[in-house]
Amino acid sequence: MSPASAAALFETTFGCAPEGVWSAPGRVNIVGEHTDYNAGLCLPIALPHRTYAAVSPRHDRLLRIVSAQSEGVVELSLDDVRPGHPGGWAAYVAGVVWALEQAGYAVGGLDVAVDGSVPLGAGLSSSAALECAVGAAISDLFGLGLLQSPTSRRDLVTACVAAENTIAQAPTGGMDQSAALLATVGHALLLDCRDHHTEQIPMTLDKQGLALLVIDTRAEHALVDGQYAERRASCEQAARELGVATLREVATSGLEERLAVLSSDLLRRRARHVVTEIARVQGVVGALRSGDFARLGEVLLDSHASMRDDFEISVPELDTAVDASVDAGALGARMTGGGFGGSAIALVPAARADEVRGRVAQAFHDKGFGAPHSFLVSPSGAARRET
Ligand code: GLA
């Protein structure tokens, strides 16, 4: 799982060396969940885990795609890419070529070999990493110049989101692609999804003797099933009933009186999560800026409770990961990503990281869950050319 292994896969599959290798990272979100499609705030970091795409352009409109994480070669014409086709992981490759062409860029066929270290199905955005690695390759190979500046990278984010929404048919909000294309080493990315303003927030936990633990619960997670879409639809309905364009426009002060007009308790709880979660992003940014890590930990816990009780996207494995982390000395913890499985994060004293990992594994064992996979991460860099 390196630029060299992607290049080697390319060579054994297609019989020649690739033109180059590009990569993009997975992400974990520190706070701000299900806020992106509500024009809210979120705060992801790029993971050290990356997806590598070895790519050559073709002179026809054929796409040939192979992955070390899957069997066989997917082959189709760019003219046959459409909603739902190709299915599965190849949609994240073919969809990006399609979306860039739709946006008016002159692109063509590709040979692509993928190898990656972003855990699959763990809620760590392996699909966005794949889209953005391929998008970076297309930009360089067809001279689109989209990696040049944060502004042009934003255009590539838009294309990758279109690929995911339209071809892969996952109605996601754009946080993952923004992290994969805009995050920088040592920083969390404060993303304002209303005006697309971004700010790099320094996050050097090691200097404070702290570490960020990611706990992949291995509980199944998928964004293309109905639950994510249902949450998004509820938020849009709540906004309509409140007479606002998006839930971003609802203030936290006087929130309960405002939400009282909603037609159901379910919509009240969904909207309450989004509005309070946006405020928690500001709380975490403030805590990072002032170095108040105890406060940061509390906000993470509040966020988890809101996702568990109001937004109802947690599962017992995620709750166990959070509770066991805190029992073992974490300052705070929360589930991260879309939910219904996937991963949690825990802010831990570095010296206690192994203890926390062990206690989480023990708690999973005691409850009869499969073994979790946990690892320490620090904020890494965005999509780039490797070779
Ligand atoms: C998934 C989606 C994102 C975002 C998160 C929840 O990761 O891809 O757009 O909505 O869920 O915060």
Architecture overview:
With 387 residues, this protein is an alpha+beta fold. It folds into 2 domains: 3-202 and 381-385, Ribosomal Protein S5, domain 2, CATH 3.30.230; 205-377, GHMP kinase, C-terminal domain (Alpha-Beta Plaits). It is 41% helix and 21% strand. The chain is built from 11 helices and 13 strands. The strands form 3 sheets. A 6-stranded mixed sheet has the order 5-4-6-3-1-13, sandwiched between helices. Helix 2 packs across helix 4. It binds alpha-D-galactopyranose (GLA). Alpha-D-galactopyranose binds at residues 29, 33-34, 36-37, 172-176, 223, 337-338. The site of alpha-D-galactopyranose has 13 residues, from helix 5.
Helix segment count?
11
Strand tally is 13
CATH topology of the largest domain: Ribosomal Protein S5, domain 2
The small-molecule ligands in this entry are: alpha-D-galactopyranose
Portion in helices: 40-55%
Order of helices and strands: HEEEEEHEHHHEEEHHHHHEEHEE
CATH class of the largest domain: Alpha Beta
Q: What Rg is obtained from the alpha carbons, in whole angstroms?
A: 21 Å
Q: What is the spatial order of strands in the main beta sheet?
A: 5-4-6-3-1-13
CATH architecture of the largest domain: 2-Layer Sandwich
Query: CA-to-CA gap between the ends?
Result: 14 Å
Shape: globular
Regions with pLDDT < 50 over 5+ consecutive residues? none
Counted up, domains total: 2
> How would you characterize the largest beta sheet?
6 strands, mixed
Question: What structural category arises from helix and sheet content?
Answer: alpha+beta
